[in-house]
Amino acid sequence: MPKIGNIQLPDFPLLLAPMEDVSDPPFRALCKEQGADVVFTEFISSEGLIRDAAKSVMKLDIYEKERPVGIQIFGAVLESMLRSVEIVEASGPDIIDINFGCPVKKVVSKGAGAGILKDIDLMVSLTEAMVKHTKLPVTVKTRLGWDHDSIKIVEVAERLQDVGCQAISIHGRTRAQMYKGEADWKPIAEVKNNPRMHIPVFGNGDVDTPEKAMEMRDKYGLDGAMIGRASIGYPWFFKEVKHYFKTGEHLPPPTMAERVYAAKRHLQMAIDWKGETLGVFETRRHYTNYFKGIPNFKEYRMKMVTSDDSASVFEAFDEVLEVFGDYEFA
Ligand SMILES: Cc1cc2nc3c(=O)[nH]c(=O)nc-3n(C[C@H](O)[C@H](O)[C@H](O)COP(=O)(O)O)c2cc1C
Question: Is pTM, for the whole model, over 0.90?
Answer without folding.
Answer: yes
